[in-house]
Amino acid sequence: MEGLTLSDAEQKYYSDLFSYCDIESTKKVAANGRVLELFRAAQLPNDVVLQIMELCGATRLGYFGRSQFYIALKLVAVAQSGFPLRVESINTVKDLPLPRFVASKNEQESRHAASYSSDSENQGSYSGVIPPPPGRGQVKKGSISHDPVQPRASADQQEPASPVVSPQQSPPTSPHTWRKHNRHPSGGNSERPLAGAGPFWSPFGETQSGSSTGDAVWSGHSPPPPQENWVSFADTPPTSTLLTMHPASVQDQTTVRTVASATTANEIRRQSSSYDDPWKITDEQRQYYINQFKTIQPDLNGFIPGSAAKEFFTKSKLPILELSHIWELSDFDKDGALTLDEFCAAFHLVVARKNGYDLPEKLPESLMPKLIDLEDSADVGDQPGEVGYSGSPAEAPPSKSPSMPSLNQTWPELNQSSEQWETFSERSSSSQTLTQFDSNIAPADPDTAIVHPVPIRMTPSKIHMQEMELKRTSSDHTNPTSPLLVKTSDLSEENKINSSVKFASGNTVADGYSSSDSFTSDPEQIGNSVTRQRSHSGTSPDNTAPPPPPPRPQPSHSRSSSLDMNRTFSVTTGQQQAGVVAQPPAVPPRPQPSQAPGPVVHRPVDADGLITHTSTSPQQIPEQPNFADFSQFEVFAASNVNEEQDDEAEKHPEVLSVEKASDPASSLRVAKTDSKIEEKTAASAPANVSKGTTPLAPPPKPVRRRLKSEDELRPEIDEHTQKTGVLAAVLASQPSIPRSVGKDKKAIQASIRRNKETNTVLARLNSELQQQLKDVLEERISLEVQLEQLRPFSHL
Amino acid sequence: MAVCVAVIAKENYPLYIRSVPTESELQFHYMVHTSLDVVDEKVSAMGKALVDQRELYLGLLYPTEDYKVYGYVTNSKVKFVMVVDSSNAALRDNEIRSMFRKLHNSYTDVMCNPFYTPGDRIQSRCACACRGGPAGRGSCSESK
User: Fold this and answer.
1) How many CA atoms lie within 13 A of A619 on its CB side?
2) What is the pTM assigned to this prediction?
3) A319 touches chain B (CB under 8 A)
4) Is B10 on the interface with A (CB under 8 A)?
5) For bias kind Polar residues, which ranges apply (chain A) (predicted)?
6) What are the pLDDT digits (tens) for B34-45?
């Protein structure tokens, strides 16, 4: 392959064509597609084309490298000039006109090409047929440093002639074109019919056609003209401009264009000022863009959403693919919306593309959105744009970005910090957590926030808690439920435990429940029972605290509601505190008469305990110091067996009197014991008396004793009979207690006692059932909680 | 070196598939196609848990004698499949993840484009460039 020497014009032209053909920017062009079109457009016979291809070596290589392409173009020129095709002819033929590429679509195009060529000839500086850009001469003179640009610029000019060679040039050409346009007053563009062959270069063709109106025509392409042309493009009027965009309508373009051109001519001339940066947006352009932006988004600081932008730019009739690419370039922050800067950049790119300029791979510096301020960045942007733009067009864009100083902070970020992207992407890849978070409905639900730290509160309101759990992730589920479950288990345990202490604690918990206001009837039910119990507990703990019930054999108590009895009993009596308090003192009065007066003082307090202790079988007694007393009673009983009856009778009045003297509540208890086994009471009396030494017997004890007494009264009857006899004897021995109570009273009182006893039994039964109900409810709630826990997982 | 990258839509048709130009490009296409089954398998395996808890990166789908196939699925059931040359001293899992992350980012950028309708073939040049980025960079960084 001989060395190829090209003139400047040729160099420019060829490079433009090559870039045009080099669609994929691979620096080599396959022998198909546009190359073939190009060669066909050269209006050469096929065999000549084949020969050319062979000569340039493309057939050998299988593709067109740049050099091959240039050689081919040169050969085309040679062929078009009529010279024989030979390898030597590449360099030998001097002053070869630039190869002509004519589209076969339009006759006008060919004419146009001719006109272009004529124009170019008129220019004088170019012998090429292709209409040189009007200002090419000036361009060439003016900017040696922009040589690489100029070929493109010229190529732009030339391209209109060759519809096939649509401008796929780099941006730089645009200002040049403007300038050329301005400085090219005339261009022999007498011929109107612009070859609107390709959509790309039709604008060019139009501009070229009317040299006098060339400016106007150019206006159709350059951005400033778009100010009017765009108007048409965007909306209606200068149909000429619209037509210019469409290859179809070529005929009418000229006339209309003249009108439009005149208006834009001035602007075009003004455009010439922006020389350096082809991608820089001029003031008029920017103003135009801003106006357009306002039509979509009145707020200049606001965003244009992607959909609106899509509609707007679709009006430009560019292919969607190119619009997509423009969007990718201009949407700097990748947010799917366009700021004013982004919009201007996109608009500028669209304009350039409409004018046939190739879309850059990277956003040019001058088009980068000014993230700082419009004013500041504009100044900053200008300089780097100008400074950076010195190389060839192909190099310009890449050179710009690194050379860009501090224009856009994000741009360096995007370029350099892949790590940053990594971090971003990590966040984005952790979008699953984000989506998790987003999918959580109202995670900041105040109720949930409140509930969690107070699991106790949750227990009664499990329904509410379940609702909140559904909103939360599984991790959250465990939190409310675990304490809840724990609480329920605790409650259940507590409820099942017969000890008053535990029940008291359960009641305290219930206090917590009842104190929670925000919960529904379920807790209320429990709360009610609990409150009821609380009322009991409220009183009993206060009173029973001093006398701890631990020694009481809990397992021996079959009924857990022994305490309940007390409390229910006190409730039924309506004298809770009094009852509880009075119970202990209630019992002692009975043994008082039978006992020495000494313990009498203590008896009111110890009475219940004593009585219960005594009334209960000796089984309970072992735990208490009264045990010893029983032995005494037994002694007494043994000694006074004979006097059982009398003693009982005596004791009854004594007891009765004592009862009357004491609280009615205590009398109930006493009555109960009496009703069951009078001997027992008698027995208990001395027991109580003996017990007088002991401090206050815990009311639960007496209660339990009483319960126990109920259960064991009968079996213990025999045992107690003797004791009662002893008691009776003892009582009888005490003359201090009067025995004036009549038998009538006694009978009535006995009946009263029986009734009261039944009442207490029923009350106890009720309390026990309440307990069971509470347990069942808690179980139900726990099951529901578990169900709710399981439910979300079952959903896929 | 990632020899093939593919973006598969929810309905299991390819949105974008690019391979290192070799003769056996069809083989890569076929590998990607067969890997879809494995992807579905993995997705359904962890499908019991909530979707949110599902890991996006699926890991090695299946190895062949020459290549390994890695998978990645997004929350919108768009799958990324990458075929990696086994001759590469085993690429670390993290690198594969980072490559997928970049791919995901590029994909989201494409999605953000209003001119792109979901379901279309991805023809974005930026996507091509980005594909070259993760595939090349990731492998190069590792090989060096």
Assistant:
1) 16
2) 0.33
3) no
4) no
5) 115-126, 205-214, 407-433, 506-543, 563-573, 612-623
6) 888 888 888 887
